[in-house]
Amino acid sequence: MHTQTLKLRTPYLIFLGEEARPTYAKTGKGIADWRPELCVGQLRLSDDALDLKLADMPVAAAAEAGVGSLIVGTALVGGSIPEHWLDTLCSAAAAGIDIVAGLHTRLDSIAVLRDAAAAGHSRLIDVRIPPKNLPVASGKKRSGKRLLTVGTDCALGKKYTALQLERDMRSAGYSVDFRASGQTGIMIAGTGIPIDCVVADFISGAAEMLSPDNDPEHWDVIEGQGSIYHPGYAAVSHGLLIGSQADAFVTCHAAGRTHIEGWEDYLLPSIGEVIERTIAIGSLTNPGIRCVGISVNTRSIAHENREDYLAQLSAKYGLPCVDPMIDGTSAIIHQLP
What we know:
By secondary structure, the protein is of the alpha/beta class.
């Protein structure tokens, strides 16, 4: 059965509303930081809103510039869409611009927005809704090469590690693509599947669709989700690992974290435990799977201690160990099979 990953139309107009706090505009900021070539402007409803250093662009100018998607780059607490945003969003939809969001409120649940999209023949895209008709995994070997980021926990750098790997590999001359498996990653990449929203029987099949057959020397760098040791999200992580058929993986960790975030009764597994279990599970569909490096978020480490900390980890596990946002990932890339 044929299906496709979600595909967004480019270029993007990043909608920020009145949001001035970077924490609540991290989706928009992430897209502007990682895919500036896809962004032609920003739409702010207040001069005090966060400035992503993109051209301020009203809807009419965006339509004339050929904008494909207005990306809602903010997330209010509760994931709602304020009523006073609707005039702007409806104007964009009526002008033929797709509206893209990853909020809890479904775009197509808003009648005036549905009407505007129908008038403009535009799409309302909630990126946390997976494609229809995803298959059960086949387990068949696919051509090309794959690298998956895995973690000792959630929210510690798997997406940013994957993005930095793709950037550094491309600079080094590799044929490579970032494969997004979460909502912000999908907006950054312009395509992907929200793996954590897929019905359990189809998670591994979705992972196969996310990283299809490719040229023998092409690398897909797959954004990891959750952790195989996570008491809440391990099922997603297992399915993504099995379906990815990774040739290589990078283990991601947050320095100083001792317990599963939000599950304080659960101690964080060691990096070594994650490596061992990832190989045990991943070898089901790729017996050649191996760890090629360790990525550490070192924000909690004093600057003067950072290099010693990474060197100790590297010596302990016999693998390159970097903070990708400071050191880059070249040391890991050199380990790729």
